[in-house]
Each structure stands twice: as structure tokens, then as C-alpha cells.
Amino acid sequence: MLDFALTADGRPTYSLTCDGKDAILPSTLGFELVKAEPLLAGFRIDGVENAEEDETWQPVWGENSEIRNHYNELLVHLSQPATERKMDIRFRVYDDGAGFRYEFPIQDKLVYFVVKEERSQFAMPGDCLAWWIAGDYDTQEYEYTESRLSEIRHLIAGAVDSNLSQTVFSPTGVQTSIQLKADNGLYINLHEAALVDYSCMHLNLDDQNMVFESWLTPDAQGNKGHLQCPVKSPWRAIIVSDDARDMLASNLILNLNDPCAYDDVSWIKPVKYVGVWWEMIGGGKQWSYTFDLPSVKLDQLDYSKTKPHGQHSANTENVKRYIDFAAEHGFDQVLVEGWNIGWEDWSGNEKDYVFDFLTPYPDFDLPGLNAYAHSKGVRLMMHHETSASVRNYERHMEQAYQLMDKYGYNSVKSGYVGNIIPRGEHHYGQYMVNHYLYAVTEAAKHHIMVNGHEAVRPTGLCRTYPNLIGNESARGTEYESFVGNTPGHTTVLPFTRLQGGPMDYTPGIFEMDMTKVNPNRTSGHVNSTLARQLALYVTMYSPLQMAADIPDHYEQFMDAFQFIKDVPVDWQESRYLEAEPGRYITVARKDKNGEGWYVGCTAAEQGHESALALDFLDPNRQYVATVYSDAADAHYYDNPQAYKIQKGLVDNKTKLALKAAPGGGYAISIVPVADQAEAKALKKLKLK
Amino acid sequence: MLDFALTADGRPTYSLTCDGKDAILPSTLGFELVKAEPLLAGFRIDGVENAEEDETWQPVWGENSEIRNHYNELLVHLSQPATERKMDIRFRVYDDGAGFRYEFPIQDKLVYFVVKEERSQFAMPGDCLAWWIAGDYDTQEYEYTESRLSEIRHLIAGAVDSNLSQTVFSPTGVQTSIQLKADNGLYINLHEAALVDYSCMHLNLDDQNMVFESWLTPDAQGNKGHLQCPVKSPWRAIIVSDDARDMLASNLILNLNDPCAYDDVSWIKPVKYVGVWWEMIGGGKQWSYTFDLPSVKLDQLDYSKTKPHGQHSANTENVKRYIDFAAEHGFDQVLVEGWNIGWEDWSGNEKDYVFDFLTPYPDFDLPGLNAYAHSKGVRLMMHHETSASVRNYERHMEQAYQLMDKYGYNSVKSGYVGNIIPRGEHHYGQYMVNHYLYAVTEAAKHHIMVNGHEAVRPTGLCRTYPNLIGNESARGTEYESFVGNTPGHTTVLPFTRLQGGPMDYTPGIFEMDMTKVNPNRTSGHVNSTLARQLALYVTMYSPLQMAADIPDHYEQFMDAFQFIKDVPVDWQESRYLEAEPGRYITVARKDKNGEGWYVGCTAAEQGHESALALDFLDPNRQYVATVYSDAADAHYYDNPQAYKIQKGLVDNKTKLALKAAPGGGYAISIVPVADQAEAKALKKLKLK
Fold first, then answer.
1. Which helix (H) or strand (E) holds A26?
2. Which of A272, A590, B153, B451 could form a disulfide with A572 if both were Cys (CB 3.0 to 4.6 A apart)?
3. How distant is the Cα of B195 from the closest Cα of chain A, in angstroms?
4. What is the pTM for the complete model shown?
5. Shortest Cα distance from A448 to chain B (angstroms)?
6. Residue B221: which of A112, A395, A424 has the nearest Cβ?
7. pLDDT in tens, B47-84
8. CB under 8 Å to B638, separation ≥6 — which residues?
9. Least CB-CB distance to B350: which of A226, A352, A422?
10. Do B422 and A431 make contact, defined as CB atoms within 8 angstroms?
11. Is A11 exposed, middle or buried (0-12, 13-18, 19+ CB in 10 A)?
12. Closest alpha carbon within chain A to B197
């Protein structure tokens, strides 16, 4: 239940309860403006409007083929008589939470205004447990910390890794989505929805009173938003339930976004891919072509005069191997990073003209490789690292997309590593928020799908712009190579980062010892069992899934690799069976294009035991289940590759007792029995 | 003569003399860097190289059809042993001055660096007289002040008018080009040449020692340049002579620029034009279409639901009148401002998506008007006001140029009114310097000529990129409508602003009383005689010349208007006959495409008397001279429209005594006698 009121001095306040328990205590709303009176107090209510919506819509891709959008709406018309300005606040209350946004109608006394700070409060019911990362204007690539709110101030220094671009702003600043658990038993999640042409919101905690307040990302001049009436803020979203599984099953963020903006979406397809990537991330191979060029000027380059270092992965022969592998195993695409000139000198220098997105290295046969891939039913995936030089990217964007059209690319992985040019702008400011969506809508004109890395965290915009098929915007698998992720990391991400949209987490690493990937390394370990790597394809929902390891490693474990080949990337229905943030997640999903079900479970350091009832199966069918699970002695660090595969018949009465090792997990494919012969050849599944 | 040396502590210094007189006293050179040791002292000379050049080149358009580039060069290779960094300084010494630039070769210990400040000194020979405008990161639209250097500090507050975007930075900061006159009789001019991907240089005066030092324009973070080796600074240019006419005749700035970068220049043509402009600037007409829209969002606009205010000048009927007028009187083009949607709400709000450069107002028939113009041998001139929203302009630029291609525009007037977006950047910073040239080189791909207003001051780049046919970058005729220019303004501009390239000054105003232009006005006066308005077509060299007044006013003075119709916009030869900054300028120019000569003289408040010898004429020809001069009682304020026209035969022995009124001038056309009949019909010219 949501309550709205004005205080005695005319401040808008709201509070939220769930089944009689406090979720958000009375919290004030409003804005501080630059060179103008604040919009905080002195309001009166000019009127209210109530509405109800109950509709069902079909996403282009998703965890479910149908989504119900059911809410009660309260629109409060406020005015501030002293300044003759109007501000509306629209609330929507769902079964699993609520959202609100500010709406400024067209009016005489407020046309253009500059936001000094949004002052939206979220007063928490006490010193909650929280899974948080440090607030930062430029990166989200941090590990989550589980702590009481009161502990954030003491833990934040240790929660911040170094990054090529980072700007921590407050000792109690955190990012959204943040997952909380109150002592009254409520799980509470705070995020935003439909972030369009507005600065990304962080939360700053008053840790005396346990009140979060919005803290927007500033521009180069320190201002936090340039708005023109009529204008709406993004939605501020609160997901609430006493069951952690509801956090994961919630569609509240998607529902708060606008319907699809495109008439034709037939060109948007989920993608399973491999790529020329992990061998550079962890294996010592290079994006670059030569070591001869300490300073590259693209318009003065002549690679024919340089000595190739021989470590350039994006060469024609190597890419052909990946294409062959993709074709053989049914992957849609092959990502190739390092295909274009400029990588000798791309990062850390705030370089303006860093890439042209057009010119391949001399050893990368752009037309030939695309033709070769297409002849095998595979596409190459484009890569646009911008090095955060955004003007340069926009200058080349149309031509770059045209190049993709010409050679038959239909998806691009983009990257924004380093400090933003225009200088002084931040990754999450209004200027860049505008850019990321521009890249997506311009891509749509070319029927291109976008997977933006180092971009602003998603806020459900994939509903409106479903060619935004992925984002990084969190700490992905690459960090397993850099410094390792904690075993619990992927049991937090679905509660937090994934609230806004899919993540290109790039799972599927089979070789955990990085010194075996690159003999020149002396350390490096992927903190996961192999079985858990399979489970991630189910637990980390995305229409874009990479098998990130190198083909050599898959060829050593083809029985386990079978699950990656089999698992769909689009779903008819998803059921969260077990969940606790930072501990474990178990989910079952039904193939959107078939009758098969796929189950994934990931566990943190503590491991996890599941007692699964397969009552979600069709009672009129018999199924073949293949269980990929940790061996009894498996352990994410000491024995990560110990797995077992068990196969047998199941039906909707079947109950399975399963165990995930520390940092482990399991994956199950459950497909209808094809014919009587198959049924006879198999026994009822009995797990050992 | 130029001397170079290192001081005892290894500081590079230079000095310059002219015929034994000091022009620049010993001055140090170098850089302060961000987060790196300075490049100021501790240098040693690793070697020097001498060279000489004497070539003649042909500009695509210009004051002369051939330009001699004759210099001695000294290249000094410096290194700083303590940091193992190298810095070269290249000097070029001409008969009329010198230039130097910094060159950083490719090297190990200096690849990327950030400039905190360039420290190039110009130590003046005493407390010179100077014609200066206040240093400003965002505007040059100031009146010149004539004062001693020591007086700048006391006069600067009064020298700064308000502007929609302005950032004065120092009480002794001035802009280049600055014209100086030393007590030793030398005229000295300081400017820069070939400003490419570098911040525009101002000069800050140490007025205890009369030493100017470079003061670059900062970026949004306060840094002054992001450089990558190998890299060269722009040239720092010093023009010196004891004859003021040599300041105007100098080609030093052009010579310091690179040769033309385009293979094909056949599409670049000088342009004489009229335009839908002055009626809005001064006449109360509107760029906008309606008063109904206090807040325009281009993607939500529907003009059909608004009430036109009826004052929109860029309407089909009115533009046709201008096309007819242009065709009748032999003009090449018709500028139309206010043709595109968005002008209701374009300025002062730092609005991002302010124009699309594509969509005409409902009353502007874009295809029809272009077809009508072409049928009469006239083109429309495109107008791109960016409102300084530079990202938005770059996003639309290619489509905007394509629109021009489609309808047959071949020139564009662009504008940058207001504060720059990206926010915190300045009009004259490296980011924008890069942009202005990008707009020019992208235009060249479409065979489009560019006339940029509110852009950085030109530095001779028109030699390299001759489709940059004009710039504003100073206080133009529009200020005559706003608050008036001083009568001496146009006797300073050729010494200062025009050193870098032509100005779209938009002369030709015949009605000086602005209350007659717009009856709703109560004040406003153009501080010039009518005859001087004619002279400006000769004294203010430009390949792009507007007849800026409205057709109605020209139709009242068709005899005087004849000079504007006759005067060429491209020249074979130019001879500066008389000159003193802030007092008078008299120049004779020969038509590039004919045998005629055209003389112009402009005078300041004091008026001017000339005794002209027409010895530049071909001794074997007889000519018809038409003299357009101030009447005896003419005065820029009290009696500006009093002019007389006298016609007669002249030859190269003729001497003419001419008089310019206060704020007046004269214009003469001198064309070969066509035939004997004409010669008989005329008498020898005798001026009254």
C-alpha cells in the first residue's frame, strides 16, 4: 500500500507498506534547481487522478512470452503558489512494488530548468541488510558487499577496485539496483526504470536515519540535468516482497517502461555466440597487430612498414577456426575483437581519433571472412570499442553501421573503456545516457542489435528498444581473469544488475586455471565449478549468451559442452524455485520454441542443497532429463572441473535432491521423450 | 632579423628586429604541462637546420592571383636531458615578419601530454599603441580600443559588451590578431596561423614589463590542449614593418599555412549575395513562425496547430522577391535565414536538440524555391544555425549536407550562438577548433562552401581549405542595428580580424536610420555614410560579399547600388595606397577576370583626404572612372545618405584629390573604355 501526503510546510511525501509491513517509511520528494527556487516545499494539491491498468503484453524476447502489467495509478497535481510552478507526481502500485516519477507539464513559469539535485528519498525500515556496490559516476565493475546499511561507510574503501575510469562520490553512496532485506522480513529492491535523456540515479545514504536519497550524475560543469517542459523523470522503482524469489520474478521495471517503439521487430533475434576474446582477456594474445607503434595516428598509419608481433588473434586463419567451431556446434555468431586498426594505442590516453570502425588490420579479411561465415550459416559479430571517445564514435557511426549492412553483420558489441570525451562528462550523466540510446536507435534503422559494454546500467529500456539485446554494466566474467570474482557474485547479480535488463556476462569458462590458458601467467583462477558455468546460462537470463572459453577447452569436455549447445536463449516461461541473495538461485525455464525445460542453480561459497519438485512439467508428457552437476568432491577453487552427468526419465511427479558444491551449481535439460524407443532405452532418473 | 639562443638555464629565447629597430625583445618559449615536468628550461641544442624557400603559389581566390612565399628557415632541435624529451622549434623569417612553431617529434619519453599552458612570450619594445579587443574564450564581437598597452587594464571593463556567450579571463588579456605601433615607428601585428586541433591562442600582457604571453583556451576541465606526438603547434606569427600598408598587404599568415588540401577546387566560387536577414536583424521581422510555442520539442511539433504570427520572413512569397531581385541585379545567391523549424525556442537555453537542419517551415517551399531560383540562374544559400549545440549539429550534418546536394545549394552560412554543448567547452577551445574544421572538410566532400559565424577566428586555413569562404568572428554589420559600431571600426578590422581570412561583414546598408527600417523602433543608427558602405566591398576583402540591406532600400538609390552590382569578388592584384589603423584605409584592386580596377577608402571619425595617383593603371589604356563619394556635407551620423557620383576618363597619369567625410569613404570603379564612341561621350574626370 502506498500513501501520499503533503507535510505541514507543503513537502510531498510518500510511504509504502507490504502486507502491513513497512517497506518505505515516510519520504519526501522534490528537486533543488540551479539559479531558481527549489521545488521541495510550499506545494499544494491541485487535484488527483486515479486509474487502473490490467493488460498483458508480449516482449520480443524475454524470460516469459507474456507479461501482465497490472497496477493502480495515482496522479497528483501539485503547484507551488509562491512561484506559480507546477509539478505532477505519478505513482503506480503493483502487487510486487511501486514506481513513481515526476512530470512537469507545459507551463509559463517553468520552461527550461537545470537540476542541482533530485531529492527523492527512500527511508528504509531500519538498518537493513544490503547487497551493494559503491556509487560511481563512471563504473559499475565492482564486487557486491553484503552488509548492514550502517556498515557501508566502513566497508566502502575496500569495495572499490581500480578502474580505467572511476569517480566515487560519497562514503555512503551506492548504485542501483540495490537489494535490501529488512528485519521485518521484507526484501526490498530500489532501482529506476526508463532512464531517457536524464542523469543516472545513484543513492546516497543518511546512515544516521537510514534514509537513501537520489544522487544524480553530474555533467562537466557539476549540474545534474538540463530539462525542458513538458518533461518526465525516469521512474523510481521499489520492488517489495517477503519472498526473495519474487525479486527475481518481478517484471515491474519492464512494466514501467514504454511499449516497443518499433513497428517491425522481425529482425531482432536472440543470439548464442562464441568469440575471439578470451584468448586476449586471459590468454596473453593481443588485440593489436604490432609492438612497433607507441603512438598511432590513424590518418598517418602504414602497417605495411611495421613488424607484426604474431600474437594478433583477429587474423583470418584463427577467425576461420572459430567460424568452423560455431557452425559445427550450432552457434549463431562469432564475435571478433581487435579486427580494426588502432589497438596499439587505444586506451588510457583520452585519445580523440582512436578508431575509425571501418578499416581492418591487414591480416583480417573482412569481406572473405563474412562470406565464409555466411556460407556456413554463421554471422560475424561486429565490435566497436569507442575508448569512450564519443564524438569520434558518433562521427563514424553511420558509416560503421553501413559497413555492417554491407557485409551482413546484424549485431555489435560496443565498449566505452576510459574517461569520456567530451572531457569532464561521466559515463552515467545525461549527455552519455542520451548517446547510448542514440547508438541503439540509429542501429535500429540498420536492423542492428546492440550490446553495450561500460554503458549506463540498463533500466528496462529493452522493452521499448528491443534491439538493445545486452549490456555489461557490471563486473563480468572478464574479472575472473583479472582478479577473480567471489563465488557468490552470480547469486547477487540477478537480484541487482539484471533488474534492468540482460547482461552479457560471458559464461562458459571450462578451464579455471588461468596459468593453463596462458603459460606466461603465474596466477589467475576462475572462481566457479564447471557445472556452475553451465547453470549460468539459465540463472543469468539474457537473449545474448556467449560461450566465452576457447574452442580447445570445449573440445576437452564435449559431454558438458552439450548443455551449452542445447540451452535456448529465449523463453516461454520462467519459474524461480529457490532464491536468497548472495547464497543461491534456482530457476526453471521453458523453451520459447519447444517443450523442453531447463533448470539452473548457482551457489555461493556455502554451496547449496535443493529438493526440486518437477511439478512445472506437463503432466501428460514423459521427459528425458540430463543433469550436469558438481561431483561430490567438487569445489570452485580446489576441484572446479569435477562434474558428473546423469540422464534418465522424469515426469511432473519427479522430485530431485541436488547438491551444488561451494561456488558450484547444476544445470538440467528436460526434454520430452522423442519416441517409445528412446523411452525404453532409458531408466527413470535416479541421482547418485 | 631573428635571433635564437638558450639562456644560461637552458630556456629557449628569440628576438626580432626590423631594419635595426626592435620588434620583439628577447622572449622565452616553452610549455607548462599537466602532471609532467615543464618544458620551459634545462634544454640543450642538439642541432640546427637551415633552409630557404622562394616559391610562388596561386590561391583559389584572394586579394592576389599569385602569392610569393619567400623565407629563411631555422629549425632548432632541442632536448631536455633531465627528462630525455625532445622539442623542436621551427622559425621562418620573411621580409615582412616571422613565424615560429613548436614541433614534437615521435619519441619514447613524450607520447601523450596535456598542456597546462603554452608559455610563448612576445616582449614588446615599450608601451606601444595598440588596437585591441578583450580576450574572451567565447566571443570576438567587441569594439576595438585604441590605447597604450599600459592602459588596457583600465579600459577593459568598458571594452566588453554583453554577449549570449562570453568568458573574459584576465584584465590584461587580449585577442589576436592585435595591431601594435611602437614608438620606434614599427607597426607590429601578432596572430597565429594554421590553427588545427589545438586551442586558440589569446595573449595576456604583463603590463609591468610589456610582455605578452600566450594564453590558450581551456577545455571543460581547465586543461589547454591534449597532444599526441608527433605533433606541431600552430604558427605564432609576427608581421612587422615601418609602413602600415605592409600590415594589410602581408601574406605571411597565408604563407605559413599548408597548400590546398583538395585536388579539385573547380567547385569553389566566390559569391555575391543578398538575403532574407536584415529585415529580421533590424526590421522587426521574425525567424520564427508563431508565438504560440514557448517550448519547442522538435519531435513533438505540429505547426499546423499553431497560429502563424505573420511576421515570418522566410516565406515563399518573400523569398521569391529576393530571388527576383538577385536575378535582376546579377547576384549569385540568396541567403534565407529562418527557413527551418525550431526558431520559436532556439537561443539562450543551452538546448540540445534545437534544430534538425532538414525540415522547412510550412510556409517555405524548399523544393519549389530552389527550382525557381535555379530557373533564374540564382542559388539559395543554406543557413545552419546550430545554437552552439554541436553534438546535435554533427549528428545531423551528413543528412543536412545531403539535403543541400539534393536541392542544389552549394554554400552554407553556419552559426554558433550561445554557450557550447558539450557543456563547459568554449567556442575557441581545441574541441571546437576541431569541430569547425570538421564541418568544413565534411562539406568539401559535398562540394559545399562554408561561412561560419561565431566560430573561432580564422588563421589562414582558407589557403588549405578554400571552401572556407568566410567567417564572422568579429563584430559585423549586425551590431550597427544592435548598438552601432564606431566609425573607425572598419579601419581597424583589415589590420586585425582580416589577417586570418575573409570576414562576412555584410556591408551595403543604405538606410542608416533604423527607425525607418522598423517603425516600432525608437532608436538605432548605422554609423557610416552611404558612400563608405560601397567602399567596404573593396576595403574589407572577401570572396563572399553580401548586399545586406533590403531590396526596397536599394531601389531608392539605384545609381549608388550600381557599384555593388559592378564590384568583383575576386582579384588579380591588390595595392594598399594609404593606411593607418583606426584612421583610414585606401586600397586599389584589379578584377581577377577583367581589366577593371576598383578603389575603396574608408575613414574614421576624423574623415580623410586622399591624393591618389592612378599609376597602377595600364599606361596603354584609357579608362572610365566612376567615383562614388561623400557629398561635402556628408557625415556618418547627421547626413549619411549625402553622396555624389562623378564619371569621367582617367589614365595612369591621373591624380585624384578625394575626401572622405567623418565615418565616410569613397568607392571608384575604373574600367577600360569600351570603344571610341564611349570615349568621345565622356570628358576627362574632374572632381568637384
1. strand A21-28
2. A590
3. 17
4. 0.97
5. 18
6. A424
7. 999 999 999 999 999 999 999 999 999 999 999 999 99
8. none
9. A226
10. yes
11. middle
12. A352
Architecture of domain A2-255: Distorted Sandwich (2.70)
Q: Do residue B294 and residue A230 have CB atoms under 8 angstroms apart?
A: no
Q: How far apart are CA A675 and CA B660, in angstroms?
A: 108
B586 Cβ contact partners less than 8 Å away, ≥ 6 residues apart: B539, B576, B577, B578, B579, B599, B600, B601, B608, B610, B612
The end-to-end CA distance of chain B, in Å, is 47
Helix (H, G, I), strand (E, B) or coil at B198: coil
The distance of A384 to chain B (nearest Cα, Å) reads 18
Strands, E assignment, A220-332: 226-228, 231-232, 235-241, 271-276
Q: Chain B interface, mutation test: which of A295, A297, A300, A401, most B Cβ atoms within 10 Å?
A: A295
Is residue A294 over pLDDT 90? no
| pLDDT at residue A35, as a whole number | 97
Confirm if A49 and A58 have CB atoms less than 8 A apart: no
Instruction: Please give the Cα distance from A248 to B236 (Å, whole number).
Output: 64
Chain B interface residues facing chain A, Cβ-Cβ under 8 Å? Answer: 106, 108, 111-112, 219-221, 223, 226, 228-230, 294-295, 297, 349-352, 391, 394-395, 398, 422-425, 431, 434, 438
Provide, as residue numbers in chain A, all residues whose Cβ is less than 8 Å from the Cβ of B295: 106, 111-112, 228-230
Instruction: Give the residue numbers of A marked as catalytic.
Output: 478
Number of Cβ pairs < 8 A linking chain A and chain B: 82
pLDDT at A450 over 90: yes
Question: pLDDT tens digits, residue range A75-110?
Answer: 999 999 999 999 999 999 999 999 999 999 999 999
Burial class (CB in 10 A: 0-12, 13-18, 19+), B620: exposed
Three-state DSSP state, A633 = coil
| C-alpha cell at position A577 | 524455485
Average pLDDT on B138-145 reads 98
Exposed/middle/buried for A684, CB within 10 Å: 0-12, 13-18, 19+?
exposed
d(CA A454, CA A471): 8
d(CA B15, CA B636): 43
Rounded to a whole number, what is the distance in Å from the CA of A404 to chain B's nearest CA?
Answer: 19
- Among residues B141, B478, B511, B578, which one is catalytic? B478
Nearest Cβ partner for B295 among A223, A228, A352: A228
Residue B623 is given by DSSP the state E
Q: Which of A675, A673, A682 is nearest to A647 (CA)?
A: A682
Q: Verify whether residue B478 is a known catalytic residue.
A: yes
Cell of B385: 544555425
Percent of chain B with pLDDT over 70: 100
Chain B residues with CB-CB distance to A295 below 8 A: 106, 111-112, 228-230
Sequence ranges of the domains in chain B = 2-255
Long-range CB contact pairs, B2-10, < 8 A, 24+: B2/B74, B2/B91, B2/B93, B2/B98, B4/B74, B4/B76, B4/B89, B4/B91, B6/B43, B6/B44, B6/B45, B7/B41, B9/B41, B9/B42, B10/B41, B10/B42, B10/B43, B10/B44, B10/B80
Task: Confirm if B278 and A92 have CB atoms less than 8 A apart.
Answer: no
Name the grid cell of B58: 596561386
User: What letter does residue B535 receive in the DSSP assignment?
Assistant: H
Q: Are A333 and A326 in contact (CB under 8 A)?
A: yes
pLDDT at position B294 over 90: no
The DSSP bridge partners found for residue B214 are: B203
pLDDT of residue A679: 87
Best A137, A228, A397 member to test B by mutation, with max B CBs in 10 Å, is: A228
Residue with cell 583610414: B584
Beta bridge partners of A304: none
User: What pLDDT is stored for residue A128 in this prediction?
Assistant: 98
Q: B221 in the Ramachandran plot: left (φ > 0), alpha (ψ -120 to 50) or beta?
A: alpha
